[in-house]
Design brief:
4 copies of one chain form a homotetramer.
Chain A: H1 20-37, H2 44-51, H3 55-61, H4 65-80, H5 90-106, H6 108-122, H7 124-151, H8 163-179, H9 186-197
Helix pairs in contact in A: 1-2, 1-4, 4-6, 4-7, 5-6, 5-8, 5-9, 6-7, 8-9
The structure holds a DNA duplex (31 and 31 nucleotides).
Chain lengths: 202, 202, 202, 202
DNA sequence: TATTAATCGAGACGGTACGTCATGTCTTTTA
DNA sequence: TAAAAGACATGACGTACCGTCTCGATTAATA
């Protein structure tokens, strides 16, 4: 009667845990390389070199370099481009759109978003993860913001567009301009709000 | 008796001219590979293999694989997504936007456009050439169409948006939806036109 | 009590060491290709293919394909064409010359020597390394053999030729015959010894 | 009834004959490239470029670049290293050996001979043609010279070596020294003659 | 306090694609 | 019809990354 004794399935863990310093070094190295040298220079080897980290350490924790960028994007845009869910006013909505314009035009993390949108065209895995971890949650928050602002009477939105299409109509042009290398001034954000959400009832 | 002066003694070239069959084989091979296997499989070696052409022949005529895609995009969208410059009516504008939605959703050349927009984020050269050879001329035609339609009283456009911003507001959301993997139904095109150009004054 | 001092704390390397199996596979593949298909088929790609090895592995360890051949030559001729330094007799010298004739005529490694002599005419680097790693050490051993044989009275060598010129006179004709596609019978080796070292005073 | 008139069967030639200027340009370009840049730079493309000649012109007249070198070697060494067949004296023989040493050490055509010997190791066709067009005829003349010199009592050659082996013994060491990058002083030629043809009976 | 197991830097490995070069054949135009 | 020009299919060059792997050394929790 072997193995009857209790020492059960799990033996939780021993050994060192994940090295936070290495994690940050990789994230920063990826960010820096993207901004300094462009996406072409963003190879796993280059990140490992720059971060002073072994390649294996990267492959152990990230399934692809897209996922590294996604980590930086999620962390950075939570900090620097929050959706103002708690203040569903017209000003908050307009302010968010302006912040998005600035994010795309100036913030390094904006470049990361563009790079990930690009990479998503080439790799379905990246597309899926970008949607799941970034686009969908953010869209959810944006939708909530807008719904509560409309409910509060801040806007009289155009009737023809549903909530999602409306948000695409507000944010899509900003992203499109950034993707095509055009400038993304804050006025454009304002003008879009005026045209689509009703004349500045602020 | 025109051209009486003697032909000016030029001796331009001898030797064989560019092989049109090879050019087309490359273009089609690139297109097919992109649609069938995705951008990841779109290597110069694979194009050459599929086209039955030597790599050197590709490098002789195209500076990068982006330029190959650009050639197919320019040729295909001249055929399948013409800007109706000669009929500046409300219907023509709405029809063009619907055609753009279909182009992005269904046409293989739509995939090429998305791939090039993506590649442009990674490579400044591709960005520049995409702008020069595709985006700028098309935008020029679109601008002309819209101007003449407004002049003819077909629309009463929103005041806050200039011509370029207006076109970004009309086409940007469609492209953005395609880039994020969302569907691009023709209704969205209609709704955008309604919202931004004034309620269907047709 | 030697080595009382503590081992000097060196930490040479971690990670995987050089793969001996890969090294031998490359050496044998090069050898085989040269013998079976001739020098023209001896490309780095073909060696890699035949050895089941990545090209990069070859470039990691050998600066050129000449160096690969040199490795096989050094190892093979240490085994199959040793200089009999320990028995400085007339018989040993004559036997060595006969062995050289056989080596050039029949041994695959003889073909390697001829190929390297040829390659050395085309590439100064190969010339230098062939001299340093093969010709010079071998010549040194030959010189020692001959000197001790003469000292022991085994020969009364021709006066006009110094040691090096004498060895060139003995071995040069054999190599030259091999290079020009002539046969290299052992008699020629004997006849050279007779003519240059004095009539078989053994 | 056509062609009844005398102009008989053969139609000798029409169109331009072989362009002698192009032939010489190719020969000189090959020679120059070999001396200036080494064998590695001696490609058909480079020869054509340097000679200002189309590649096809080279392929039309020479089966390989070895044949080009062979043409220059045959022409140059007929001029600069003639076998003194008409004066079968000891001095003539010794002079010829000294001239061979100088040819190998200093003459550009000597480099061509070494390059061809090398190329012959890699390519059987070159080997065959080198033998047929250069080595064999020259050896024939050398043999005749030596035979007549011996007949005239100029030498009492070593008995063990037949005529061919004797010539290999005289010339082989000189070529071998040149191939291994050693110097080829004229003394060596003299010493070989002394050792193999009997003590300077001049 | 030893054992044990996971992490880490390093880097070798089999691959694939890169962009360049030379090969030898061919086609077009000029002389 | 020879020659210059040069496009073409082929295939090797040497380099860069890919993602996997193995090596020792290090570092925690477990026993």
């Amino acid at each position: 009667m072997p193995d009857a004794s209790p020492p059960p399935a799990r033996r939780p863990r021993s050994g060192p845990r994940r090295d936070e310093a290495a994690r940050l070094a990789v994230l920063h190295a990826a960010d820096d390389l993207l901004v300094e040298l462009g996406f072409g220079a963003l190879t796993v080897e280059a990140i490992a070199r720059r971060a002073g980290v072994a390649k294996q350490t990267i492959y152990r924790w990230w399934p692809s370099k897209g996922e590294i960028l996604l980590d930086t994007l999620v962390e950075d845009s939570a900090k620097r481009l929050p959706v103002p869910v708690d203040t569903p006013t017209a000003d908050a909505v307009r302010g968010y759109l302006r912040a998005l314009a600035r994010f795309l035009a100036d913030d390094p993390a904006g470049k990361v978003l563009l790079a990930l949108l690009a990479e998503a065209q080439h790799d379905p895995g990246t597309a899926e993860r970008l949607r799941t971890r970034y686009l969908a949650p953010r869209r959810e928050a944006e939708r909530a913001l807008l719904a509560r602002a409309i409910e509060a009477g801040a806007f009289a939105p155009a009737p023809a567009l549903g909530p999602d299409a409306l948000l695409d109509a507000l944010t899509g042009p900003l992203v499109y301009r950034a993707l095509t290398g055009a400038s993304v001034p804050e006025d454009v954000a304002d003008a879009l709000a005026d045209a689509l959400l009703g004349p500045a009832a602020r």
